[in-house]
Amino acid sequence: MSRLTRPRLERLMRYYQFLCDQSCPLNSENPVRVVTSAQIAQAMERDQTLVRKDFAAIGITGQPRVGFSAVEVCSAIRRSLGFDGAYPAILIGAGHLGGALLAYPGFHLYGLSIVAAFDRDSSKVGTKVGGCTIKPLGMLKPFIRNQGIELAILTTPADEAQELATRLEESGIRAIWNFTPAKLDVPEKVFVRNEQISLGLAELAYRLKDAGPKRGRESARGTGSKKARK
Amino acid sequence: MSRLTRPRLERLMRYYQFLCDQSCPLNSENPVRVVTSAQIAQAMERDQTLVRKDFAAIGITGQPRVGFSAVEVCSAIRRSLGFDGAYPAILIGAGHLGGALLAYPGFHLYGLSIVAAFDRDSSKVGTKVGGCTIKPLGMLKPFIRNQGIELAILTTPADEAQELATRLEESGIRAIWNFTPAKLDVPEKVFVRNEQISLGLAELAYRLKDAGPKRGRESARGTGSKKARK
DNA sequence: TAGATTGTTAATCGATTAACAATC
DNA sequence: TAGATTGTTAATCGATTAACAATC
Predict the structure, then answer these.
(1) Paired residues of A177 in beta bridges
(2) What is the chain B residue with the closest CA to A177?
(3) Which of A105, A106, A101 is nearest to A116 (CA)?
(4) For B90-118, what is the mean pLDDT?
(5) Which of A94-108, A110-124, B19-33, B71-85 shows the lowest per-residue confidence on average (mean pLDDT)?
(6) Which residues touch B84 (CB under 8 Å, ≥6 apart)?
(7) Which of A87, A197, A221 sits opposite B205 (nearest CB)?
(8) A137 at B interface, C-beta within 8 A
């Protein structure tokens, strides 16, 4: 099974969100058991062939004339994206954004649990944010080592980011979810995913400026979403 | 000048961030006046031809043997992305994430100023977050109308998002920056940019799972960043 | 001038869509 | 069976990179 590309990963994530929601008995009186690629495609505003290709890429097969089992698709996505092997993470920088992530209850769907939060500010240390007691930065390295943490979430000011990234890498962290605007310089072996929220402003400002009649709605981050054919 | 694609918009944004930083006299003893496409390409880890193409797309011309004027590039990007026509925005949902955006000082670089914040919770109304006094939702429509606001930032819980989007659209909002996981159904004429932060987990979980030796570092949201050639 | 850099055309690459055969 | 839907190969589309001519 070949490597999944980023657009494909993000689409799989969206299928997963959609199908978890649709197939959950809590959410509707008749949860969906079987879906066709056309139904998913319509909900995602993509082409149905693409949906089938994405499924094929992670080894899901459907039944001709029937469709795909919603729970099978969900579990295949969980398996191939790694949501089932629940991975503990730590968060550094318990400011507004850090607090928002700590308080977000939805991450468990994707196997993520933030098990500890750290902050430089000693007045924050010991307080609780979203169920996590803030720890001092001095405990960072021993905590990562002892708990075998592999993922760190960086929500500090930009000017602290590089120094922390280096410490994280030295402590054995394997991936960093970087919410700071800083570009992190770390060894190849550490995977960095940058969430540059302000990039969105490029598109928003541009569409606002351009008051012409040809404005169209677009959605979805990163991946363009072309309208599906009817 | 043809329509700018989303990857191009996001790259232009990054050039802008980089050049603002490099050419600002506050940030270094000798601010950069002239840059070559190769220098920018290296910093962005992209191909230099792409940089020149991006510049050409917004009408920037350089000088052979010299390069591009940093301030000219910045102002051309400001002009074509619409950062110079400062656009006031409102924010709805003054929770953790809303507070983070209200407190973020960097948006002014892109022409954005959040001029008011609204919240459903009456106990929050009247308090101050990041310099904004929280207003009640009842004032939403008159405020948008009177101030001629075109951009709204949605940071409410997902289940309130659709109702608010409809109200925003009826009040004359032209673009919505949607931070909720909800898919908004609004007329074509309203532009929606979704920031689905949890999409990032698809990639992070996948790279973490895959412990093989061929892991590579990737960065930048949405756009893949291939390593530039030396 | 020679050489560095831009500007632009052609080639490549990757992702999406169209077409259609296979299946139950 | 007939027909709906999957699975897969071929075609298209768009974005990136390579090659190279133009410029100062």
Answers:
(1) A153, A193
(2) B204
(3) A101
(4) 96
(5) B19-33
(6) B75, B78, B111
(7) A87
(8) no
